[in-house]
Amino acid sequence: MQQSKDFIFCHPPAILNGHKPILDADVGYTHQFVCIPVGIFSMADSLEKSGFSVGILNLGERLYIKKDNEELKDIIKYYLEKYRPRIVGIDLHWWVHSAGAVETARLLKEINPNIITLLGGITSSYYAEEILRDFSDIDYILTGECDESIVSFTKYICNNEMDLNQISGLVYRDNGEIKTKKPVPPQNLDKLDITRYDLLLKPEEIYADRAIIPITRGCVHDCAYCGASNESFSKIMGRRPMCFIKPEVIVDLIEKNNSKNKKHIYIYGDIQDGDLPFTNEFFKLLHEKDIEGIHLVIEFFNPPNKDIIEKWLEIISVKKITLEATISPDSGNYLVRKQLRRDYTNDQLLNSVKYLYERNIPVSVYFMLGCPDDSDETISETLELSDDILTEYSKYFTYEDVSHEVIGYEFMQIPDLGSEVYSNPEKYNIIINYNSFMSLVENIKNATHWSQLIGFTTKYFNQAEFVRQYYKIKYSIYEMYYRHEIINEEIYNKKISDLNNDKLIYKKLVKNGSIKN
Predict the structure, then answer these.
(1) How many domains are contained in the chain?
(2) How far is CA 425 from CA 154, 230, 429, 430, in A?
(3) Domain assignment present for 446
(4) Is residue 486, in this structure, part of any structural domain at all?
(5) What sign does the CA torsion over 119, 122, 127, 128 have?
(6) Residue 381: Cβ within 10 Å count
(7) Tens digit of pLDDT for each residue in 284-339?
(8) In Å, what is the CA distance from 11 to each residue of 54, 59, 163, 296?
(9) Radius of gyration for the alpha carbons in the chain, expressed in angstroms and rounded
(10) Would residue 350 count as lying in a domain?
(11) Which of 7, 172, 291, 507 has the fewest CB atoms found within 10 Å of its own CB?
(12) Any idea what the CATH number is for the domain that residue 88 is in?
C-alpha cells in the first residue's frame, strides 16, 4: 500500500555529467557528497511533531548506487509516484550541490508541474533573489534556519493557514516581483532532534553506522574562508549571537544513536569553546550515560589544553570507547594562518599533537591549498610541518587508525560562498571567477576535471599554478606516508598511479585547449 507524504526533503546529487570535477575534502562521502546537512533532520522532526507526514530522500546516494540503466529522472519519478508529496524541499547548503539542486527542481516540475519546490541552506540563502529570478522551476526559498518557518510554510501550502508575509525567511514571487522576509532563527533548540535518520525513505548505505551531532548553531570563531563563521553565518542565516546546544541534549543524542547502532559518532564543534559550566556538565553527563562501545570523532579548532585532553582520557578509560580528533591549522606558516584568524604557533600545534599521540588519541591534521597569501615558500613550510607531524604519528599509529587522512592537505577550489574571502576578495588580493549563481551552476555542469572548477586566483597563483602546487603537495604527502611506513608499498603505488592518471587527464585537457595553461 502506498503511503503519501505531505513533504519530502531531497538531498540532491552534486555531479550530473558522470565525471568527478569536485575534489573530495577527505570526508569519504563520494563525489556526490551524499552527507545530508543536519538541519534537514531537525526540520523533518519539527514537521512530524506538528502533525505532517514527512520523509527524507538522499537522492545523491540513490544516484551514486543506481542501476546501470537508471537515470536521475527515473529515481525522482519512482519516489514521486510512491509518496505523492505536496512539497519537495531541496537542500542547497554547500555550493557543490548547486547544479544538482537546480536540475532536481527542473525534473520535479517536468514530472509533476503542480508540485511545490522549495530550496533552503547557506548557498540558497546567500543567492536567494538571484535563484528565483533565473530559475523558474524553483517556487520558494526559505532563508536562514528553518526549523520553525518550515512548519509555517507547510501549513500555508497544505492547510491554507498562515499568510506568505507572515513566514520568516521566505523569498517568493508576487506578481513578477521578488519579495523577501527576514529570517528569524529558532531560540529554543532543546526539543529538536538533529538525528532523525528513521525518517529516511531508504536507509543509508554509505556510512550507515555514522551519526553527526553538532554542539552549536553558528560558531564562536570567525575564520575568513568559512561561510558558517560567526560573522558570515549571522549575515546569511540571521543568527546573532551563536548559541550552544545544551549538554544534556548533546549527550542524550549520543546515547540515543548508540542504542540505534550508530557506533561512529562525529561531534561537530570544539567542546573547549564552551564555558567551564558547559564543559563540566558535558563530561559529567557522559560519565552517567550508557555510551560504551562507540567511536567518537571530535574537533579541535585550537590546540587543546591539557585539562580537556585529560577529561577525554578519563571518559575513554571509564566508558571503554575509542576516540580520534581532528584539527585544521590550514597552513604551516604562522602569518598565513593568522590572516585566516587561526592564531597559534607551529610549536603549539606540534606539542599538542604529540601530547595526544602519546596518550593514544590519533589526530588528523588539515591544511588547505588556496589560502590568500599562499606561496611556494609557505607551502614548503606546510609540507615540512606535515613531515614533523607524520614523524610523531608513525611512532604510535597506522594508516587505518584514523577515519580520514593523517594529513589532509586539500584544495579549496572555491572559497565558501558568503565567507569574508568570497564576499570581500579585494581585501585578500584575490579574484573570484564565479561571481554569480548562474556561472557557478554552468561551470559545475560542464566541468569534467577538478582543474576546470578552480574558482579564484591569488596574487601568487593563477589556475595553472594552483594545479602544479596541488600535484606537488599530493606527491609529497604520499612520499612521506611511505617513508614513515604509515602505508605499505602497494598502497603507495596505488595512490601514485591514481595521481599520475589524473595528471595525464589534465595534460590532455590542456593540449586540446579545454584548459588554458
Answers:
(1) 1
(2) 38, 18, 6, 5
(3) no
(4) no
(5) positive
(6) 17
(7) 999 998 888 899 999 999 999 999 999 999 999 988 899 999 999 999 999 999 99
(8) 14, 5, 27, 25
(9) 23
(10) no
(11) 507
(12) 3.40.50.2300
